[in-house]
Predict the structure of Adenine phosphoribosyltransferase.
Amino acid sequence: MEHGSLGAARVTDQMAALVASLTREVADFPEPGVQFKDLTPLFADSDGLSRVTDALAEGARGATLIAGIDARGFLLGAAVAIRLGVGVLAVRKAGKLPPPVHSQTYQLEYGTAALEIPADGVELAGRRVAIVDDVLATGGTLAATARLLSVAGAEVIGAGVVLELADLGGRRAVAPLPLTALRTI
């Protein structure tokens, strides 16, 4: 099993097994042929959530701010930020924040989407930011988040995800950003 690292993060077979054991597989969702990986049981399990938070926090050491991607990344990002004693920034889907905002558009399979962060009220220049999300698939959202934070003046030091779907090429899309994945399939 290949795992990237962010800082001193060390992904173990035990962690991967924990994530696997608490992941619900849903066939044909959101469309036929897709085997959806639902992490809701993992997040609802106190020990599972605590251990995942610890592992992601270990990988984010050195960050002065955690950026959680809309929406499950909000849950993980806040937990990791609390563990590290730093703040959390919610990276939102377009249209959810009052202006002014920094915005980054990116390609989806069929069309485009945009992510936003506040342009006022949170000083990002010089901040060391680690990005946290639940799943890395094609990498478009995570790569757009890294670009968005960089344009706003932050130093993006790496990213951490609970689950990486390796066949979809997300790691290549975010390279050379250091990436920790707690389970890679």
The chain has one domain: 3-184. The first strand starts at residue 24 and ends at 27. Residues 3-184 form a domain with the Rossmann fold fold (CATH 3.40.50.2020). DSSP finds six helices and nine strands in the chain.
